[in-house]
Amino acid sequence: MITGAMWFVKVPLLDLQAQFQHIRSDVLSAIEEVCNEQSFVLGRRVEALEEAIAEYVGCRYAVGVASGSDALLLSLMAAGVKPGDEVLTVPFTFFSTAGGISRLHAVPVFVDVRPDTFTMDPEQIERKITPRTKAIIPVHLFGQCADMESIMELADRRGLKVIEDACQSIGASRHGRNAGTFGYSGCFSFFPSKNLGGVGDGGLIVTNDRDLRELLLALRVHGSRSDYHHDHIGLNSRLDALEAAVLRVKLPHLNEWNAKRARNAATYDRLLTEAGLLEHVALPVTGPGNVHVFNQYTLRAQRRDELMAYLKEHEIGHKVYYPVPLHLQQCYQPLGYSKGDLPVSEQLAQEVLSLPVYPELTSAQMETVVGRTGEFYNSR
Ligand SMILES: *Cc1c(COP(=O)(O)O)cnc(C)c1O
Protein backbone atom coordinates (compact mmCIF):
# COMPACT_ATOMS: atom_id res chain seq x y z
CA MET A 1 0.00 0.00 0.00
CA ILE A 2 1.24 3.45 -0.81
CA THR A 3 0.88 6.00 1.95
CA GLY A 4 2.00 9.37 3.21
CA ALA A 5 3.20 12.67 1.84
CA MET A 6 3.95 11.41 -1.66
CA TRP A 7 0.39 12.25 -2.62
CA PHE A 8 1.40 15.90 -2.69
CA VAL A 9 4.47 15.38 -4.85
CA LYS A 10 4.33 16.63 -8.40
CA VAL A 11 6.22 14.67 -11.00
CA PRO A 12 7.46 16.40 -14.16
CA LEU A 13 7.50 14.54 -17.47
CA LEU A 14 11.16 15.45 -17.87
CA ASP A 15 13.62 17.18 -15.53
CA LEU A 16 16.71 18.35 -17.39
CA GLN A 17 17.87 20.35 -14.35
CA ALA A 18 18.51 17.15 -12.40
CA GLN A 19 20.90 15.88 -15.06
CA PHE A 20 22.59 19.26 -15.51
CA GLN A 21 23.34 19.59 -11.79
CA HIS A 22 25.39 16.37 -11.93
CA ILE A 23 27.60 17.46 -14.81
CA ARG A 24 27.36 21.21 -14.42
CA SER A 25 31.04 22.08 -14.04
CA ASP A 26 32.16 19.86 -16.94
CA VAL A 27 29.50 21.33 -19.22
CA LEU A 28 30.32 24.91 -18.25
CA SER A 29 34.05 24.45 -18.78
CA ALA A 30 33.45 22.86 -22.20
CA ILE A 31 31.34 25.88 -23.15
CA GLU A 32 33.99 28.24 -21.82
CA GLU A 33 36.70 26.55 -23.89
CA VAL A 34 34.70 27.01 -27.07
CA CYS A 35 34.09 30.66 -26.19
CA ASN A 36 37.77 31.18 -25.50
CA GLU A 37 38.58 29.76 -28.95
CA GLN A 38 35.80 31.71 -30.71
CA SER A 39 35.50 28.93 -33.28
CA PHE A 40 31.84 28.01 -33.45
CA VAL A 41 30.99 26.12 -36.63
CA LEU A 42 32.22 22.57 -37.35
CA GLY A 43 35.95 22.25 -36.58
CA ARG A 44 37.87 19.87 -34.36
CA ARG A 45 35.27 19.61 -31.61
CA VAL A 46 32.69 18.42 -34.09
CA GLU A 47 35.22 15.96 -35.55
CA ALA A 48 35.98 14.63 -32.08
CA LEU A 49 32.30 14.07 -31.40
CA GLU A 50 31.81 12.40 -34.80
CA GLU A 51 34.64 9.98 -34.05
CA ALA A 52 33.37 9.26 -30.55
CA ILE A 53 29.82 8.55 -31.70
CA ALA A 54 30.95 6.43 -34.66
CA GLU A 55 32.89 4.34 -32.17
CA TYR A 56 30.03 4.28 -29.67
CA VAL A 57 27.49 2.93 -32.15
CA GLY A 58 29.97 0.76 -34.05
CA CYS A 59 30.00 2.45 -37.45
CA ARG A 60 32.92 3.65 -39.53
CA TYR A 61 31.77 7.23 -40.07
CA ALA A 62 29.62 9.92 -38.50
CA VAL A 63 28.63 13.32 -39.90
CA GLY A 64 27.28 16.02 -37.58
CA VAL A 65 24.37 18.10 -38.89
CA ALA A 66 21.97 20.74 -37.60
CA SER A 67 19.14 18.45 -36.41
CA GLY A 68 17.69 14.97 -36.56
CA SER A 69 15.25 16.24 -39.17
CA ASP A 70 18.15 17.35 -41.35
CA ALA A 71 19.90 13.99 -40.79
CA LEU A 72 16.85 12.38 -42.41
CA LEU A 73 16.57 14.99 -45.17
CA LEU A 74 20.29 14.82 -46.05
CA SER A 75 20.19 11.01 -46.05
CA LEU A 76 17.29 11.08 -48.52
CA MET A 77 19.12 13.63 -50.69
CA ALA A 78 22.25 11.50 -50.66
CA ALA A 79 20.21 8.42 -51.54
CA GLY A 80 19.11 10.25 -54.69
CA VAL A 81 15.43 10.46 -53.80
CA LYS A 82 13.79 12.56 -56.51
CA PRO A 83 10.39 14.21 -57.07
CA GLY A 84 7.72 11.56 -57.57
CA ASP A 85 9.73 8.77 -55.92
CA GLU A 86 8.04 6.85 -53.13
CA VAL A 87 9.54 6.25 -49.71
CA LEU A 88 7.94 3.80 -47.29
CA THR A 89 7.66 4.84 -43.66
CA VAL A 90 5.30 4.61 -40.69
CA PRO A 91 2.49 7.00 -39.75
CA PHE A 92 2.99 6.52 -36.00
CA THR A 93 6.05 8.74 -35.47
CA PHE A 94 7.18 12.35 -35.15
CA PHE A 95 6.35 14.45 -38.21
CA SER A 96 9.88 14.91 -39.48
CA THR A 97 10.23 11.25 -40.46
CA ALA A 98 7.85 11.95 -43.34
CA GLY A 99 8.50 15.70 -43.65
CA GLY A 100 11.91 15.19 -45.25
CA ILE A 101 10.41 12.93 -47.92
CA SER A 102 7.87 15.59 -48.81
CA ARG A 103 10.43 18.38 -48.83
CA LEU A 104 12.09 16.55 -51.73
CA HIS A 105 8.71 16.34 -53.52
CA ALA A 106 8.82 12.60 -53.07
CA VAL A 107 5.81 10.74 -51.67
CA PRO A 108 5.63 9.19 -48.21
CA VAL A 109 3.83 5.84 -48.45
CA PHE A 110 2.65 4.75 -45.04
CA VAL A 111 3.05 1.22 -43.71
CA ASP A 112 1.23 0.38 -40.49
CA VAL A 113 3.02 -0.52 -37.24
CA ARG A 114 2.79 -3.56 -35.00
CA PRO A 115 0.37 -3.22 -32.08
CA ASP A 116 2.90 -4.59 -29.56
CA THR A 117 6.19 -2.78 -30.28
CA PHE A 118 4.69 0.18 -32.22
CA THR A 119 7.39 -0.28 -34.92
CA MET A 120 7.00 -0.93 -38.67
CA ASP A 121 5.16 -4.18 -39.41
CA PRO A 122 7.39 -6.05 -41.87
CA GLU A 123 4.45 -8.10 -43.11
CA GLN A 124 2.77 -5.02 -44.51
CA ILE A 125 5.74 -3.65 -46.43
CA GLU A 126 5.82 -5.75 -49.58
CA ARG A 127 2.35 -4.90 -50.84
CA LYS A 128 3.19 -1.16 -50.66
CA ILE A 129 6.22 -1.46 -52.93
CA THR A 130 5.79 -0.12 -56.48
CA PRO A 131 8.28 0.52 -59.30
CA ARG A 132 8.68 4.06 -57.87
CA THR A 133 9.69 2.94 -54.38
CA LYS A 134 13.27 4.04 -53.61
CA ALA A 135 13.79 3.68 -49.89
CA ILE A 136 12.35 2.63 -46.54
CA ILE A 137 12.56 4.66 -43.33
CA PRO A 138 11.82 2.44 -40.32
CA VAL A 139 11.60 4.29 -37.01
CA HIS A 140 13.20 2.92 -33.86
CA LEU A 141 10.35 4.33 -31.81
CA PHE A 142 10.48 5.29 -28.12
CA GLY A 143 13.89 3.62 -27.69
CA GLN A 144 13.75 0.24 -29.38
CA CYS A 145 14.70 -1.06 -32.79
CA ALA A 146 12.22 -2.03 -35.47
CA ASP A 147 12.42 -5.62 -36.78
CA MET A 148 15.56 -4.90 -38.79
CA GLU A 149 16.33 -8.47 -39.91
CA SER A 150 13.02 -8.69 -41.76
CA ILE A 151 13.23 -5.13 -43.08
CA MET A 152 16.84 -5.49 -44.34
CA GLU A 153 16.12 -8.85 -45.94
CA LEU A 154 13.20 -7.40 -47.84
CA ALA A 155 15.02 -4.18 -48.77
CA ASP A 156 18.05 -6.08 -50.06
CA ARG A 157 15.85 -8.40 -52.09
CA ARG A 158 13.93 -5.48 -53.63
CA GLY A 159 16.92 -3.14 -54.06
CA LEU A 160 15.72 -0.46 -51.65
CA LYS A 161 17.87 1.75 -49.42
CA VAL A 162 17.11 1.75 -45.71
CA ILE A 163 17.47 4.99 -43.76
CA GLU A 164 17.00 4.38 -40.04
CA ASP A 165 15.24 7.01 -37.97
CA ALA A 166 17.14 6.31 -34.75
CA CYS A 167 16.45 9.79 -33.33
CA GLN A 168 14.87 8.32 -30.17
CA SER A 169 17.17 5.34 -29.85
CA ILE A 170 20.84 6.16 -29.47
CA GLY A 171 22.40 3.24 -27.60
CA ALA A 172 19.56 0.81 -28.33
CA SER A 173 20.50 -2.48 -29.92
CA ARG A 174 18.97 -5.56 -31.52
CA HIS A 175 20.67 -8.95 -31.28
CA GLY A 176 23.82 -7.07 -30.24
CA ARG A 177 23.83 -4.62 -33.15
CA ASN A 178 23.23 -0.92 -32.51
CA ALA A 179 20.37 1.20 -33.79
CA GLY A 180 21.51 3.16 -36.81
CA THR A 181 24.02 0.60 -38.09
CA PHE A 182 21.82 -1.76 -40.10
CA GLY A 183 20.98 0.26 -43.19
CA TYR A 184 22.38 2.77 -45.68
CA SER A 185 22.46 5.45 -42.99
CA GLY A 186 21.35 5.96 -39.39
CA CYS A 187 19.94 9.28 -38.17
CA PHE A 188 20.24 10.65 -34.64
CA SER A 189 18.87 13.77 -32.94
CA PHE A 190 20.37 15.73 -30.06
CA PHE A 191 17.19 17.66 -29.32
CA PRO A 192 17.35 18.30 -25.55
CA SER A 193 14.66 15.74 -24.68
CA LYS A 194 16.43 12.86 -26.44
CA ASN A 195 18.53 10.36 -24.46
CA LEU A 196 21.65 12.26 -25.53
CA GLY A 197 20.41 15.84 -25.56
CA GLY A 198 22.39 18.95 -26.46
CA VAL A 199 21.97 22.62 -25.56
CA GLY A 200 19.83 23.30 -28.59
CA ASP A 201 19.19 21.55 -31.89
CA GLY A 202 21.67 19.09 -33.35
CA GLY A 203 21.81 15.82 -35.26
CA LEU A 204 24.14 13.26 -36.76
CA ILE A 205 24.25 10.62 -39.49
CA VAL A 206 26.24 7.38 -39.19
CA THR A 207 27.25 5.12 -42.06
CA ASN A 208 29.82 2.52 -43.08
CA ASP A 209 29.84 3.81 -46.67
CA ARG A 210 32.85 6.00 -47.45
CA ASP A 211 31.28 7.59 -50.55
CA LEU A 212 28.14 8.42 -48.61
CA ARG A 213 30.23 10.09 -45.93
CA GLU A 214 32.03 12.23 -48.54
CA LEU A 215 28.73 13.21 -50.12
CA LEU A 216 27.18 14.14 -46.74
CA LEU A 217 30.23 16.24 -45.82
CA ALA A 218 29.60 18.24 -49.00
CA LEU A 219 25.80 18.37 -48.77
CA ARG A 220 25.86 19.90 -45.28
CA VAL A 221 27.86 22.88 -46.62
CA HIS A 222 25.82 23.71 -49.73
CA GLY A 223 27.29 20.85 -51.72
CA SER A 224 30.84 22.20 -51.79
CA ARG A 225 33.98 20.14 -51.38
CA SER A 226 36.26 23.16 -51.59
CA ASP A 227 35.32 26.75 -50.78
CA TYR A 228 33.00 28.37 -53.32
CA HIS A 229 33.01 25.37 -55.69
CA HIS A 230 29.66 23.58 -55.63
CA ASP A 231 29.36 20.05 -57.02
CA HIS A 232 25.84 19.56 -55.63
CA ILE A 233 22.93 21.63 -54.39
CA GLY A 234 23.07 21.09 -50.66
CA LEU A 235 22.01 23.13 -47.67
CA ASN A 236 23.46 24.81 -44.62
CA SER A 237 23.15 22.11 -42.00
CA ARG A 238 26.11 21.98 -39.66
CA LEU A 239 26.62 20.98 -36.08
CA ASP A 240 27.90 23.79 -33.85
CA ALA A 241 31.12 23.45 -31.87
CA LEU A 242 29.24 24.40 -28.68
CA GLU A 243 26.80 21.53 -29.18
CA ALA A 244 29.60 19.11 -29.97
CA ALA A 245 31.63 20.14 -26.92
CA VAL A 246 28.67 19.65 -24.58
CA LEU A 247 27.65 16.35 -26.19
CA ARG A 248 31.24 15.11 -25.87
CA VAL A 249 30.97 15.73 -22.11
CA LYS A 250 27.64 13.92 -21.92
CA LEU A 251 28.41 10.89 -24.10
CA PRO A 252 30.40 8.97 -21.44
CA HIS A 253 27.28 9.12 -19.22
CA LEU A 254 24.88 7.83 -21.86
CA ASN A 255 25.08 4.12 -21.03
CA GLU A 256 24.39 4.82 -17.38
CA TRP A 257 21.47 7.13 -18.22
CA ASN A 258 20.03 4.56 -20.63
CA ALA A 259 20.36 1.83 -18.01
CA LYS A 260 18.55 4.01 -15.47
CA ARG A 261 15.72 4.62 -17.91
CA ALA A 262 15.42 0.86 -18.45
CA ARG A 263 15.48 0.27 -14.69
CA ASN A 264 12.73 2.86 -14.24
CA ALA A 265 10.68 1.13 -16.92
CA ALA A 266 11.06 -2.19 -15.08
CA THR A 267 9.98 -0.48 -11.86
CA TYR A 268 6.83 0.85 -13.53
CA ASP A 269 6.09 -2.61 -14.96
CA ARG A 270 6.33 -4.06 -11.46
CA LEU A 271 4.36 -1.31 -9.70
CA LEU A 272 1.55 -1.32 -12.26
CA THR A 273 1.32 -5.11 -12.06
CA GLU A 274 1.35 -5.14 -8.25
CA ALA A 275 -1.33 -2.45 -8.20
CA GLY A 276 -3.58 -4.76 -10.24
CA LEU A 277 -3.82 -2.30 -13.10
CA LEU A 278 -3.16 -4.64 -16.02
CA GLU A 279 -6.86 -4.92 -16.74
CA HIS A 280 -6.77 -1.18 -17.53
CA VAL A 281 -3.35 -0.60 -19.08
CA ALA A 282 -1.09 -2.61 -21.39
CA LEU A 283 2.60 -2.38 -20.52
CA PRO A 284 5.22 -1.50 -23.16
CA VAL A 285 6.50 -4.56 -25.03
CA THR A 286 10.18 -5.03 -25.83
CA GLY A 287 10.73 -6.91 -29.10
CA PRO A 288 12.84 -10.10 -29.17
CA GLY A 289 16.60 -9.41 -29.11
CA ASN A 290 16.03 -5.71 -28.35
CA VAL A 291 17.83 -3.67 -25.74
CA HIS A 292 15.32 -0.85 -25.17
CA VAL A 293 16.60 2.59 -24.04
CA PHE A 294 13.17 4.01 -23.15
CA ASN A 295 13.25 7.50 -24.55
CA GLN A 296 9.57 7.11 -23.65
CA TYR A 297 7.72 4.70 -21.37
CA THR A 298 4.47 4.34 -23.28
CA LEU A 299 1.38 2.48 -22.10
CA ARG A 300 -1.84 1.67 -23.87
CA ALA A 301 -4.51 2.90 -21.49
CA GLN A 302 -8.27 2.43 -21.33
CA ARG A 303 -10.20 5.71 -21.07
CA ARG A 304 -6.92 7.40 -21.89
CA ASP A 305 -8.23 10.95 -22.14
CA GLU A 306 -10.00 10.74 -18.77
CA LEU A 307 -6.86 9.34 -17.18
CA MET A 308 -4.89 12.23 -18.68
CA ALA A 309 -7.25 14.78 -17.21
CA TYR A 310 -6.87 13.13 -13.79
CA LEU A 311 -3.07 13.10 -14.00
CA LYS A 312 -3.08 16.72 -15.11
CA GLU A 313 -5.26 17.73 -12.17
CA HIS A 314 -2.74 16.08 -9.83
CA GLU A 315 0.34 17.51 -11.56
CA ILE A 316 1.68 14.22 -12.87
CA GLY A 317 3.63 14.77 -16.09
CA HIS A 318 2.45 12.78 -19.11
CA LYS A 319 2.11 13.21 -22.85
CA VAL A 320 0.58 11.58 -25.89
CA TYR A 321 3.14 10.65 -28.52
CA TYR A 322 1.46 10.77 -31.03
CA PRO A 323 -2.20 11.90 -31.07
CA VAL A 324 -2.67 12.15 -34.86
CA PRO A 325 -1.08 9.60 -37.19
CA LEU A 326 0.71 11.25 -40.08
CA HIS A 327 -1.62 9.95 -42.81
CA LEU A 328 -4.48 11.87 -41.14
CA GLN A 329 -2.58 15.15 -40.71
CA GLN A 330 -4.09 18.19 -42.39
CA CYS A 331 -1.04 18.75 -44.58
CA TYR A 332 -1.23 15.19 -45.90
CA GLN A 333 -4.86 15.36 -47.03
CA PRO A 334 -3.67 15.58 -50.64
CA LEU A 335 -2.17 12.08 -50.27
CA GLY A 336 -5.74 10.79 -50.14
CA TYR A 337 -5.75 8.58 -47.07
CA SER A 338 -8.88 8.17 -44.99
CA LYS A 339 -9.71 6.96 -41.50
CA GLY A 340 -9.40 3.18 -41.30
CA ASP A 341 -6.53 2.91 -43.80
CA LEU A 342 -3.89 2.29 -41.13
CA PRO A 343 -5.95 0.92 -38.26
CA VAL A 344 -3.21 -0.01 -35.80
CA SER A 345 -1.64 3.46 -35.87
CA GLU A 346 -5.08 5.03 -35.57
CA GLN A 347 -5.96 2.92 -32.56
CA LEU A 348 -2.61 3.60 -30.88
CA ALA A 349 -3.17 7.33 -31.32
CA GLN A 350 -6.33 6.93 -29.18
CA GLU A 351 -4.74 4.73 -26.50
CA VAL A 352 -1.08 5.57 -25.89
CA LEU A 353 0.16 7.56 -22.93
CA SER A 354 3.79 8.25 -22.02
CA LEU A 355 4.80 8.58 -18.37
CA PRO A 356 7.93 10.23 -16.91
CA VAL A 357 10.92 7.85 -17.25
CA TYR A 358 13.97 10.16 -17.21
CA PRO A 359 17.08 8.73 -15.51
CA GLU A 360 16.96 10.78 -12.30
CA LEU A 361 13.35 9.85 -11.49
CA THR A 362 13.05 8.44 -7.96
CA SER A 363 11.14 5.37 -6.75
CA ALA A 364 8.90 7.66 -4.69
CA GLN A 365 8.02 9.62 -7.83
CA MET A 366 7.19 6.45 -9.72
CA GLU A 367 5.06 5.24 -6.82
CA THR A 368 3.21 8.53 -6.96
CA VAL A 369 2.60 8.19 -10.71
CA VAL A 370 1.31 4.63 -10.32
CA GLY A 371 -0.63 5.55 -7.16
CA ARG A 372 -2.49 8.30 -9.01
CA THR A 373 -3.15 5.98 -11.94
CA GLY A 374 -4.60 3.41 -9.54
CA GLU A 375 -6.73 6.04 -7.84
CA PHE A 376 -8.21 6.97 -11.18
CA TYR A 377 -9.11 3.42 -12.25
CA ASN A 378 -10.30 2.28 -8.84
CA SER A 379 -12.50 5.29 -8.10
CA ARG A 380 -14.44 5.75 -11.31
C1 LIG B 1 13.19 13.98 -32.49
C2 LIG B 1 12.84 13.16 -33.67
C3 LIG B 1 13.18 13.54 -34.97
C4 LIG B 1 13.75 14.87 -35.36
O1 LIG B 1 14.75 15.36 -34.63
P1 LIG B 1 15.02 16.95 -34.49
O2 LIG B 1 16.43 16.96 -34.01
O3 LIG B 1 14.03 17.49 -33.53
O4 LIG B 1 14.90 17.54 -35.85
C5 LIG B 1 12.89 12.67 -36.00
N1 LIG B 1 12.27 11.51 -35.78
C6 LIG B 1 11.91 11.12 -34.55
C7 LIG B 1 11.23 9.80 -34.38
C8 LIG B 1 12.17 11.94 -33.46
O5 LIG B 1 11.77 11.56 -32.24
Explained architecture:
α3 packs across α6 and α8 (about 255-275) runs parallel beside α11 (about 365-380). It is globular, with a radius of gyration of 21 Å. β6 (about 175) and β7 (about 175-180) form a beta hairpin. The longest helix has 22 residues, at about 15-35. The chain is built from eleven helices and 15 strands. With about 375 residues, the protein is α/β, with parallel strands linked by helices. The protein folds into two domains: about 20-110 and about 120-250, 3-Layer(aba) Sandwich (Aspartate Aminotransferase, domain 2); about 255-380, Aspartate Aminotransferase, domain 1. The chain binds pyridoxal-5'-phosphate (PLP). Pyridoxal-5'-phosphate (PLP) binds next to α3 and α4.
**Count of extended strands:** 15
User: What best-fitting shape do the alpha-carbon axes yield?
Assistant: globular
Mean pLDDT: 96
Helix content: 25-40%
| Beginning-to-end CA distance, first to last residue | 19 Å
Give the neighbour order of strands across the main sheet: 1-9-8-5-4-2-3
